[in-house]
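Before any further analysis, backbone shapes were mapped to integers, which produced the following:

***
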Amino acid sequence: MRIRKLFKFENAHIVRNCSSERCKHSIHGHSYQIELILEAKRLDHGQMVYDFGLLKSSIKDIIDSFDHAICFWNKDDPEYIAACKKFSARWISLPVSPSAEQFSRVIFFWAQEILKQTQMQNGESDVSVYSVIAHETATGYAQCFADDVANEQMGQLNLEDFEFSDQVSAEWHDTDLYAKLIRGESFTNPTVTMQVQTQVQAGKPDA
């Protein structure tokens, strides 16, 4: 079964090496809509794939990092990068180009890494990211799947190769969020008090 959560943010960038003269030479922005699609082969004790409320913590924080920020490819001109850092309090340095295609890959990558390091507390099983769709405009989007994240021909993604400005990280619920992710530390979901006993909890076979 799959579930979908929609996130929104405003972001600015230059997309170097693209065909459009406007996009590759000028800073411009978009109102992005991100569809995060999760899947699992069984449901938790609340009979959900994953409680939508749990997506309001670390995963929402990391996606919200893009909001009202400027993103740049860390291979861009050093003077341009320095200007972005000097004149914008909110910026993200990416190891890939800030295109819609790469936004879908990056968000998939971050969300999947957070889920891998999350200690589940409510019977969740094999919850994973199925796909991420990054809507850049009303008429165009990029969609990413697991094979795209792993495909190094699309650009290698390593946790250590991203950098966030101080203002971005200061607005996370846990300002050490990304450092914990790099260190492989666990993110622990809140405990749940059972109100209805399920067959699985009672040690009975599934119906």
